[in-house]
Amino acid sequence: MKFGIVVFPGANCDHDAYHAVKHVLGESAVYLWHKEHDLQGVDAIILPGGFSYGDYLRSGAIARFSPLMNEVISFANDGGLVLGICNGFQVLTEAGLLPGALIPNVSTKFECKTVRLRVENTDTPYTGQYEEQQVLQMPIAHGEGRFYTDPETLGLLEDENQVIFRYVDSAGEATMAINPNGSLNNIAGICNKERNVLGMMPHPERACEAVLGMADGLGLFESIREYFTVSA
Amino acid sequence: MVKALVTVHYKEGILDPQGKAVNNALKSLGITGVSEARVGRHIVLNFPDLSRSDAKAQTEKACEKILTNPVIEDYEFEIVEEEA
User: Fold this and answer.
1) Smaller CB count within 10 Å for chain B: N or C?
2) A31-86 pLDDT, tens per residue?
3) Catalytic site residue A203?
4) pLDDT of the residue at A231
């Protein structure tokens, strides 16, 4: 299967994502320059972490209007798999492919550490290889990761099981104390109603190899491959 | 020249950590009487060739399309004329 990694000016996890899917997962991968209009026949798109356009105005606000985003939005609307990691999640909310917004952490600090995530729903193309309620470890690195939305939308996200990852403590509980950024309901990742678009603040692509200290993120990419292989 | 002075701020009810930090600093400096500080963004758009009403229409479009995120932010703006 072929992954496409979108490269915005200021992206800094594009190589990590490329490495994870190409060298660790062992699938093919190409970079997609934000000024192009050609998705090069990819089967899944990754919007990587970083600081696209320096996070000017709002995180993801300017990247959302990159030429290539027109194709990414059509691809997503046709059911294509689009994964937004960190800044990529911010771009997806700005583009309206996911509800809500990511706003500055309550701590006012850039939070860079390892967190625990609970898998809330394994019935998605991104989590099929995990166990329900499995607790994963991954790094976060963001200043604006507080998921916010109006109460009505939040209720819908919960009712429709669109909350995919939640920040939890070592006992697997989603406590306020462990919440690294003040996200509503400890939300770390959500998907759209159709489940083909996922946005998450933690970095699975930086947690794919034991040598890096964490390999829990690999399951997410394996899930994508499994989903693609079965549905193709 | 016609200018738009745009102010963008978080909607009421959204915790503004920057504002909170500013408020704490005010307190420690002995500036009293402030119940809350909120930090927003100020954007100036210069329209050298547009009339006031055209500038207003363009500014509204800019605010809706990119300058603000309606999920979290409100905006207001003022059109002013300054000698070039």
Assistant:
1) C
2) 999 999 999 999 999 999 999 988 899 999 999 999 999 999 999 999 999 999 99
3) yes
4) 81
DSSP three-state, residue A52 = helix
Task: Give residue A83's identity as a one-letter amino acid code.
Answer: L
Please list, residue by residue across A54-80, b when 16 or more beta carbons sit within 10 angstroms of its beta carbon and e when fewer do: ebebbbbbbbbebebbebbbebbeeeb
Q: From CA A60, how far away is CA A120, in angstroms rounded?
A: 26
Smallest Cβ distance to A94: which of B14, B21, B69? B69
Spatial separation of the C-alpha atoms in residues A135 and A114, rounded to whole Å: 13
Q: Which amino acid is at B33?
A: G
Residue A205 falls in the annotated catalytic set: yes
Question: For chain B, where are the alpha helices, taking DSSP H only?
Answer: 17-28, 52-62
Report d(CA A3, CA A212) in Å as an integer.
22
Place of tokens 């507080």: A146
**Residue A14 is encoded by which pair of tokens?**
């594009």
The pTM of the full predicted model, rounded to 2 decimals, is 0.94
- Cβ atoms B71, A101 nearer than 8 A: yes
Mutate which of B12, B72, B74 to test chain A, going by most A C-beta atoms within 10 A?
Answer: B72
d(CA A52, CA B28): 36
For residue range A89-115, what is the model confidence (pLDDT) as tens digits? 999 999 999 999 999 999 989 999 999
H or E segment at A88? helix A87-94
